[in-house]
C-alpha cells in the first residue's frame, strides 16, 4: 500500500470517527435529530455524512457496531482470564463504564443491531460468567451464589451506574464492586424458614404459659 493510499484511508477513518462521535452527542440529547444536525455537529457537509452512511438507520447501526467493538476491547483490556478475579472485576467494571458513559445512545441500540453485534454480546456474557465462577472459586463470592445470578445483578448495577454518571468511571467502579460484594445491609440476611412443628394440636406452644387452674368448688 502506498503512502498516499494509507493517508487517504486514515483520513477517511478519521472522518467516520468524527461523524460517529458527533452522532452520539447529538442523538443522546435528541434521538429524533436529523442527519443535517449531525453533520453540523461533526463540522462536515451533509453530503459527506450521506456518502459514508446511506441512511439514518445505517448510521445508527454503524454507531452500535463501533460501540460494541469498544465494549469488547474494554473487556479484553482488563485481562479477566489472567488477572486475579477481584482485580479483573474492578478493571472490567471501570473499562465498561467508560464505554457505556461515552457511547450510551449507541450501546442502547447494541442488542438489536445485527448478528455480529449479538455475537459479541454473547461472548462477553460467557466471559463474565466465567469471571464470576473464578471469583466464587477464589472466595470472592459466597459458595452458594450462582454465577449467572451474580452476573445479572452486576449487569443491573452497571446499567444504573452508567445512567447516573455520578462520578468518574474508576470511582463508580469502586462503589459498584463494593455494593456487589458487600451489599447495602448489615450482613444479617434472611434466615431459611424452619419446617413447621409436628406437635399434637392440644400441646401449648413452648413460649406460651398454660392457663391458671380453675378454683375448686369448695374454695
Beta-strand fraction estimate: under 5%
Helix run count? 9
- Count every beta strand, where a strand is a DSSP E run of 2 or more residues: 0
Q: Which overall shape is indicated by the principal axes computed on the Cα atoms?
A: elongated
Alpha-beta content class: mainly alpha
Distance between the termini: 118 Å
Q: Could you state the order of secondary-structure elements as H and E?
A: HHHHHHHHH
Q: Report the radius of gyration as a whole number of Å.
A: 28 Å
What is the subunit organization of this protein?
Answer: single chain
Secondary-structure map:
Elements (H helix, E strand, L loop, with lengths): L2 H27 L5 H8 L3 H7 L3 H22 L7 H18 L1 H5 L6 H23 L9 H18 L4 H14 L37
Helix pairs in contact: 1-2, 1-4, 2-3, 4-5, 4-7, 5-7, 5-8, 5-9, 7-8, 8-9
Amino acid at each position: 500500500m502506498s503512502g498516499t493510499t494509507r493517508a487517504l484511508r486514515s483520513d477517511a477513518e478519521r472522518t467516520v470517527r468524527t461523524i460517529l462521535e458527533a452522532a452520539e452527542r447529538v442523538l443522546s440529547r435528541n434521538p429524533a435529530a436529523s442527519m443535517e444536525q449531525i453533520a453540523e455537529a461533526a463540522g462536515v457537509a451533509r453530503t459527506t455524512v450521506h456518502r459514508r452512511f446511506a441512511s439514518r438507520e445505517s448510521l445508527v447501526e454503524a454507531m452500535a457496531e463501533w460501540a460494541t467493538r469498544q465494549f469488547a476491547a474494554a473487556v479484553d483490556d482488563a485481562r479477566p482470564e489472567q488477572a486475579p478475579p477481584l482485580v479483573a472485576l474492578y478493571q472490567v467494571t471501570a473499562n465498561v463504564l467508560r464505554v457505556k458513559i461515552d457511547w450510551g445512545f449507541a450501546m442502547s441500540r447494541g442488542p438489536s443491531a445485527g448478528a455480529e453485534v449479538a455475537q459479541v454480546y454473547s461472548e462477553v456474557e460467557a466471559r463474565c460468567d466465567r469471571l464470576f465462577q473464578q471469583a466464587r472459586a477464589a472466595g470472592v463470592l459466597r459458595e452458594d451464589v450462582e454465577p449467572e445470578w451474580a452476573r445479572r445483578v452486576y449487569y443491573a448495577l452497571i446499567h444504573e451506574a452508567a445512567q447516573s454518571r455520578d462520578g468518574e468511571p474508576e470511582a463508580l467502579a469502586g462503589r459498584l464492586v463494593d455494593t456487589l460484594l458487600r451489599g447495602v445491609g448489615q450482613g444479617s440476611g434472611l434466615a431459611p424458614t424452619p419446617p413447621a412443628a409436628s406437635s399434637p394440636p392440644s400441646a401449648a406452644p413452648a413460649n406460651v404459659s398454660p392457663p391458671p387452674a380453675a378454683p375448686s368448688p369448695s374454695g
